[in-house]
Amino acid sequence: MKEAQELRAGNCVKVGNDLHIILKYIYTKGARGASSCKMKMKNLSTGGVSETVYRASDKFDLVVLERKKMQYLYGSDDMYTFMDQETYEQMDLNKDDLGDALNYLQEQMIIDVIVHGEKAVGVELPKQVDLEITYTEPAVKGDTGGKVLKTAKVNTGVEIQVPLYCNIGDKIRVDTGTNEFVSRAN
Length: 186
Hints:
By secondary structure, the protein is mainly beta. The protein folds into three domains: 2-63, SH3 type barrels; 66-124, CATH 2.40.50.140; 128-184, CATH 2.40.50.140. The protein has one helix spanning 95-98; strands at residues 2-3, 12-15, 18-28, 36-43, 49-55, 59-63, 66-76, 79-84, 90-94, 110-116, 119-124, 128-136, 149-154, 159-163, 171-175, 180-184. It has a six-stranded antiparallel sheet. The radius of gyration is 18 Å and the shape is flat. The termini are far apart.
């Protein structure tokens, strides 16, 4: 049994008699220990997606599903194709299966695809990914008091808050769980 605050996107839990995979997870720390976890989950039996808020102390049965190392090949319309690194077999996932992982998905990227039976049901991203800044405004001279951030668009299309010293073309490391800048990438 795991508490709701210990879960992450990509985990599979049992709710009632059905298995659910967590697509999106937001932890909110409340006053006097009233913390909550908002989860967007997909029911693996029906394919339905729902959003629910749980207390941080609520208990869940964690279910371990098979994970396969797969390479992201391409996206077409709302389908995204992955290839198994051992058998070269291809599997498709739709936009709903991927959830927030779409913000970090890059061609040729190797990630863990979560498989239930013979069907791919989701992905588990690494904790951090390296992305390239495609657009950001130049820094404003004299605006250096405290931790000053600006918006930058990266090569996957998502916008991230970065420090003023980051410029177009810089490679940065981003935390996939919090969507926050970590450091410059090597």
